[in-house]
Specification:
Chain lengths: 481, 286
């Protein structure tokens, strides 16, 4: 028996998308000196707005505004007063939560279920959490001296959440920011700029400059930027690490991943299957910590695969604004091409491809949830980050083999373990070289919980007390800031 | 007629052994007055790569030991150093031309620093780790773990400088390939003798002597090195080149610190800079 779902669309009437957007510098929207680019709805390919592309001169203006605000206002304000601004922002995010969620789904393509129930609540919680740190930094273990101006560049997969992860701790610690949202998802950052205005945040404390790679490079290499925070690809992360070499800039990088999700034969299989699905199909697999390599113990591999395929067949792919949608649109034509290319390579290298049967809309960028079996460690789909709804399945026999395969990657962002045996969970968690280990769960995030990688997944942590370190100056004698 | 000394051959310290440089090269090391002290081994790229292999091989065992055990081993280094203090004082006087009182103060501080760091082994997790109160029914714990194999360019202080950069790395479970001070390399090898007789497993600390500009770039670009400490790099241009090379696999980089006062009590940052934070989640239920 199959269930039919009636359409349950969330209304778009709550959002007011302007035909064009400028840059948010020194508390005001300005035209900028550069060209402009279009942002589209990836579910329909409809052009949503023209957005200014910040030039080097615009970035310089933004950094100057941030420096002025830092010197004259923000670094002189007491932590308690800074906290109140951040609490205000958190509250306005909650008040305008539905508007933010709908806009995020329109610009990004993610299901409204996720933007409404995951992204926006975490964004508000993140500001609320770091607001409370602003007047308690002396207890943090990292001192209470801000760095100055933070240049921040964020990706398109969680536009507003990544903005919150960057801006909330920076402001709490007394820094001012110049932030660039991704070129395919600028709209919620620009709505956040309006929220800063509503909160009466002093001009220049937050500056939002839109643009692509060149704008990002201008921010990162600007001589008056004291701190660089980047979330995105490992390739760009390495370029940033090279660009800041020899400077005094402090850097945190949150980069790619190829997480192993390890399922043992004693795991509660229904829960594990939910975890596998959540691990790779949440947010269309556009997740740096996605569980993109399933390592399943050989003795239960057939059973897990049967259950997984049955479950995948029930995933509802389609209109991101439909409240029943599980998997939305791929964020851009470019990303879709990359997912298709790697999937084709998977097939040509000999892995077996299976996609859930589903009708994909005619317009927009879509990719059916896909699983590859018979994958070996040498296959590119087992080594490279696909950043899409594509799962590679490998098998193992012993815990040591699972560890060896799981750690056999230059990345080290996250990992999952599914087993009923407590001592095995702890031993696996100890031996996995990854910054976040989810045991009998996956893809959980919280403002109090530090997030970040080992090895080529980057350095520094975002979230929790640890997240303050990247925004405070180490004033210990002889310390390397 | 007076007795003829039996002089020591200074070699490298790699994987718990004391091999010569595979290159067969050595270089002259003079004392403070310009008189010959000894020939030191001049390590090559191959020696550096061998040292990384030894350090990687030692990492699993060393990082897997209990913190209590690592503390006892590092404390043991202090004990053995104390027992050989006269040799080190004599070496420092000869190499650096310092007064007996100054040499004694460096040895005192080196021993005390080892004891200080030894005590951190089973405390650093408590100080920098966290239980995180997430908004949901989950156990959530963040703990520090060593980054892996760390390359170190040691500063000039042949004993205190070296101890001050190596001890904080190994106490947390990292393994180390250290390029000793180019001008004063001999004490580093003598310290290797101390470490080799202190229950420190072979490969946890590997000491190379020779040219910083020749060896450091190979370590900075080595894809199986997880971090690099540039403390002893005095040439700013070289430091930038090394930091650029280190980006190839996103090594954790500690930038140069030319004016460090090694007699001052250190903070935590020499340990924390080469620690990763691992956060483990588990549902809480019945």
């Amino acid at each position: 028996m199959t269930f039919e779902y009636a359409p349950a669309p969330e209304s778009r009437a709550i959002v007011d998308i302007k035909p064009s957007y400028g840059l948010f510098i020194n508390g005001e929207f300005v035209d900028g000196n550069g060209t402009s680019f279009k942002t589209v709805n990836p579910a329909t390919e409809e052009v949503l707005a023209e957005v200014a592309e910040a030039s080097d001169a615009d970035v310089d203006e933004a950094v100057k505004a941030a420096r002025r605000a830092y010197t004259r206002v923000w670094s002189r304000m007491s932590g308690a007063e800074r906290a109140k601004y951040l609490y205000r922002i958190a509250r306005i995010i909650q008040e305008r939560g539905r508007e933010l969620a709908v806009l995020e789904s329109i610009d990004n393509g993610k299901p409204i279920k996720e933007s409404r129930d995951v992204d926006v609540p975490i964004v508000a919680a993140h500001f609320f959490y770091y607001a409370g740190w602003a007047d308690k930094l002396q207890y943090s273990g990292y001192g209470s001296t801000p760095l100055g101006v933070a240049g921040q560049v964020i990706p398109w997969n969680f536009p507003l959440m990544m903005l919150a992860w960057k801006i909330a701790p920076a402001l709490a610690c007394g820094n001012t920011v110049v932030l660039k949202p991704a070129e395919t998802t600028p709209l919620t950052a620009l709505l956040f700029a309006e929220i800063c205005q509503q909160a009466d945040l002093p001009p220049g404390v937050v500056n939002i400059v839109t643009g692509a790679g060149d704008t990002g490079r201008a921010i990162v290499s600007h001589p008056d930027v004291d701190k660089v925070a980047f979330t995105g690809s490992t390739e760009v992360g390495k370029a940033i690490a090279r660009a800041v070499a020899g400077s005094d800039k402090k850097v945190t990088l949150e980069l790619g991943g190829k997480a192993a999700n390890i399922v043992f034969d004693d795991a509660p299989l229904d829960q594990a299957v939910e975890g596998i699905v959540n691990g790779i199909f949440f947010n269309q697999g556009h997740v740096c910590c996605a569980g993109s390599r399933l390592l399943v113990q050989e003795s239960v591999a057939d059973e897990v695969m049967a259950r997984l395929k049955r479950r995948m067949a029930t995933l509802r792919v389609g209109d991101p604004l439909d409240k029943n949608t599980d998997v939305g649109a791929i964020n851009s034509a470019e990303q879709l091409a990359k997912i298709r290319e790697l999937s084709e390579i998977g097939e040509s290298e000999g892995a077996e491809r299976w996609s859930a049967p589903c009708d994909l809309p005619a317009n927009g960028y879509w990719f059916a949830p896909t699983v590859f079996t018979g994958v070996s460690q040498a296959h590119r789909i087992a080594r490279e980050e696909i950043f899409g709804p594509v799962l590679s399945v490998l098998t193992f026999r012993t815990p040591s083999e699972a560890i060896e395969k799981a750690n056999n990657t230059p990345f080290g962002l996250s990992a999952g373990v599914w087993t009923d045996k407590g001592s095995r969970i702890l031993s696996m968690a100890n031996r996995l070289r990854a910054g976040v280990v989810w045991a009998n769960t996956f893809n959980k995030f919280d403002p109090t919980s530090p997030f970040g990688g080992y090895k080529e997944s980057g350095y520094g942590r975002e979230g929790g007390r640890h997240g303050l370190e990247g925004y405070l100056k180490n004033t210990e004698k002889g310390a390397d800031a | 007629m007076s007795r003829i000394d039996v002089r020591k051959t200074y070699k490298l310290y790699i994987g718990g052994q004391f091999p010569r440089s595979e290159s067969g090269r050595s270089y002259v090391v003079n004392d403070a007055k310009g008189r010959l002290l000894a020939n030191a081994a001049q390590a090559s790229r191959k020696d550096a790569r061998d040292a990384v292999v030894a350090a990687r091989a030692a990492f699993g065992g060393w990082s897997g030991k209990t913190a209590y055990n690592r503390a006892q081993v590092v404390y043991r280094i202090a004990e053995v150093l104390e027992g050989r203090r006269e040799q080190f004082e004599a070496e420092l006087r000869a190499a650096e031309g310092v007064t007996p009182a100054r040499a004694r103060s460096y040895v005192d501080a080196s021993i005390d620093r080892l004891v200080w760091y030894a005590g951190w082994a089973d405390k650093i997790t408590q100080v920098v780790g966290n239980a995180n109160p997430v908004a949901g029914p989950y156990f959530n714990l963040s703990t520090p773990e060593p980054s892996g194999v760390i390359a170190v360019v040691a500063p000039r202080g042949p004993l205190l400088g070296l101890v001050s950069v190596v001890a904080p790395l190994i106490i947390t479970g990292n393994t180390v390939v250290v390029i000793a001070s180019q001008d004063n390399p001999l004490t580093a090898i003598t310290l290797g003798e101390v470490m080799a007789t202190s229950d420190l497993p072979g490969g946890v600390v590997n000491v190379l002597t020779g040219s910083q500009t020749e060896i450091a770039p190979w370590l900075a670009s080595h894809m199986d090195v997880n971090g690099i400490d540039l403390t002893g790099v005095e040439d700013a241009e070289l430091a930038t080149e090394l930091e650029v090379a280190a980006a190839d696999n996103l090594k954790r980089v500690r930038r140069p610190a030319p004016d460090t006062d090694w007699l001052a009590e250190p903070g935590l940052d020499r340990m924390t800079q080469f620690l990763e934070t691992k956060t483990v989640w588990h549902p809480i239920g019945v």
